[in-house]
Design brief:
- It holds the Pfam family PLDc_N.
- It is found in: Cell membrane.
- Residues 13-52 form the Cardiolipin synthase N-terminal domain.
- This protein has one domain (2-51).
- The protein is 67% helix and 0% strand.
- The protein contains three helices and no strands.
- Helix 1 (2-20) runs parallel beside helix 3.
């Protein structure tokens, strides 16, 4: 149960960041990252690690 809550919170944080971040600061297309975030823990973690430009 706790892992499910963590997963939902992590995905919510990633989607919020993706929605508020301008496209020029995202590596790749935003729509693809939005779909990737759906993939368990791997999607949000991948977005935070490789999807954002500094």
């Amino acid at each position: 149960m706790a892992l499910g809550v963590v997963q939902v919170l992590l995905a919510g944080a990633a989607w919020t960041d993706l929605a508020l971040r301008p496209s020029e600061f995202v590596k790749g297309r935003k729509v693809w990252w939005a779909w990737a975030i759906l993939v368990n823990f791997a999607g949000p973690l991948a977005y935070f690690r490789w999807g954002r430009k500094a």
